[in-house]
Fold:
Amino acid sequence: MCDVRGRVRSPAIALALTIALAATTARSEPRKHPTLAPVTAVVPGALVHGSGHFVAGHTTTAKRLLITETIGLALVVGSLGGLAATGASRYTVTPLAVGAVVGFDLFALSFLADVYGTTAPDGGTGAPLRTRSRLESEVGVRAVHDPQFPYGAVAVQRLDLREGRVRLSPSAWQAPRGGAGELSVLVSARLVGPGTRPEDTRHLAEPQTHPADGSFLDAELVGGHRGYLGDGFSTTWVEWRASGRLDLHHVGSTLRGSFAELQLGAALATHRYSIGASERDVLLLTRIGWGMYVGRGLSHAGEVTVFYDHRRDTITGGMLLPGIGAGYLGFAGFSARYFLDRTFGVAAEGLVGSAWIGGVSLVVRQAGRAW
Amino acid sequence: MVKRALLLSVAAAAASCVRVSEGRAERDRAVGAAEIDGLSIVVDDGLAAVRALQPARVDLWGNAPALSLRLVLDAARDVELRVDNAMADARAFVGARVIDSTAPGTRRAFVIPADAFAPSEGRFAARVLVRPPDADEPRRFRFAMYADVQEAIDRVQDVYARMNAEEGVSFALMAGDQTTHGGPDELEVFQREMATLRFPVFATLGNHELGKPEVPYHDWFGRGSSSFELHGARFTLLDSASATIDAIVYDWLDDWLARGRGRVHVVAMHIPPIDPIGVRSGSFASRNEANKLLARLAEGRVDLTLYGHVHSYYAFENAGIPAYIAGGGGAIPERFDNVGRHFLVIDVDPVAQTHATRLVRVD
Structure:
């Protein structure tokens, strides 16, 4: 049906085969107790993060994961305690809310990393995409289940234009019903990471000692307009944020192929109503994620990310929870991208908030410069 | 087959997760209707909860100043109608007959005589109105508004004493979080503490009433979403306890907004659509839904919106509508705001179509 090193007919099959191939890759440094370690990463690893690595004999990584968990827990407990003690005071809520989300990030990250590091093959499930295309386009469709807004399906488009450190990325979505749609433009400058310095090609010759590093830090500015003509309102906003990724091989060699993401920022929005009134709003932007690369090279490679985003102003909205804790969360989801060759790829995402959203896109890129 | 079942399960899970308050809207529909052998009752618009039903006695908890209900008996007989949480000057009207209460204060009791029931399809029926005699007359009146008592129920008498000291308050609106977890024992205590007030409290629920899976709130205090009129002004209470409003309630809201056009219209709910401190997000789960609701309220010419949930006092505008958050019932206060426990006193002039809101500090 397919040749993993050549052409594939189905992205899903290619993805599965790539994972399987990666999983069967010979390990240069066999871990102790390869069967027991993944189990202990879950039990008691769900409580004591790093347990899996400890059983596998990677005690340094285990300690780092445990320390990460401890810091995360301390941040969560401290921040939630602070929010309760201050009654979510307007004067202290921003650092406390950020602390709670980042703390949860560290807590979840250390658990996922422990599971990943005890189950992934040596060298990881993949490596960062080693190309930065100057031009990339994405067109797709999203099924939206939202009783408040009967979108049905939504068409999505995105264009990425890159030149050096700078990226310009206009994107849009339109709903065929309800007169709803959004147009936004992102401008980002890469501060650290691929594209900011002469390429280090040592990872090509010495992948074990010099793994490719997809870590980056971007400064981003976004402006956009969202309209709901059928419901009589629109929103225009501008947001500024810092988005970063850290490849986790910096934490431990067993974590090669996985990464953590963090985004912090703020948005200023103006909401206009059809009767003529308007109001302004300030939003806290906090997004955390964990992911893994799938496959290696310039094609047959991609990445999968699971994330939580604290904002509630997008089409997804925040999660609706039964019970007392209603209204405090943003949305969660996954996103995945996989390139079948140097030009074509597929993307998929699933989001859970006030709306449940899922869909796929076709990604087309200009064959880019490898790094 | 397995795949289909899986897909159906996922679809059901998605549907349940995006309509977390649908069940409560369905329960709202059932409030005010009950039946036993030989007697049935339907309270129009579900504006009272049926607490107990016996062959010759009906116990209601009112959630509006004026109630209209239909009693149907298998045989004509005297029926004792007890309405707790009623306007202190409420009387019962059956046709041209006016029946005075046999009990004072907000716990009204009326004996509907057997001859007030008219034969109807082999049974005996009576339409009973329980309301102040001048409920339909447009005139100035005053009401209080508060929210977020929660664990401070032991100290709520301070708030009630201050409310009772306010001249001319006809009733209070309670915008949710009466309790900490919403259990039957807590609801009972809240009801007991209310007995010291000289006027009724018309309420909706807050997220803290959702702490028990069965959510017994409706059995005590009736609907979460309802609408009523007094002296020509309309009041609408919405169940936003889950940081959203169910699609069923939006359908009701369209009707209530239509009925409120041309009148002073006050809308109250627990969780505000938007938090004036945006980074805190003590508001609806979806900003887009918040905008949708506010656009609808603005187009419906709502005059005033009242909220709880945030334990402080805020005066602001949403979609051009004056808005107040008054979460000062005693629950953990927002620190550093120098507000403390508080409530609002609101004067309404339905003729001039004006209203004035005043903050009353308790501490």
In short: The helical segments of chain B are 2-18, 22-30, 156-164, 184-194, 217-221, 247-260, 287-299. DSSP finds seven helices and 22 strands in chain B. The longest helix of chain B spans residues 2-18.
